[in-house]
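Milestone 3.1: sequence recovery, worked example.
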């Protein structure tokens, strides 16, 4: 059986040869805890973003518009190599 990991926060780090998605949960102090990291090539990340856009569009078509939380825990980092 596949392991399910719930996340309410994600930190994205981009490097020349990879993209890392650090998923986690935030505590009351808004600190990320209980992390899992997924690393992939930039090419894979681009394909994943296209797939996720399709999934969200299908979801909204079936269930209605998803309202974005302005306080969502999403952090984008860019690192030089």
């Amino acid at each position: 059986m596949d392991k399910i990991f719930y996340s309410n926060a994600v930190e994205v780090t981009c490097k020349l040869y990879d993209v890392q998605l650090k998923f986690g949960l935030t505590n009351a102090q808004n600190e990320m805890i209980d992390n899992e990291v997924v690393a992939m090539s930039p090419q894979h990340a681009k394909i994943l973003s296209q797939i996720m856009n399709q999934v969200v569009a299908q979801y909204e078509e079936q269930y209605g518009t998803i309202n974005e939380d302005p306080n969502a825990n999403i952090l984008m980092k860019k690192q030089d190599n």
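The radius of gyration is 14 Å. DSSP finds one helix and four strands in the chain.
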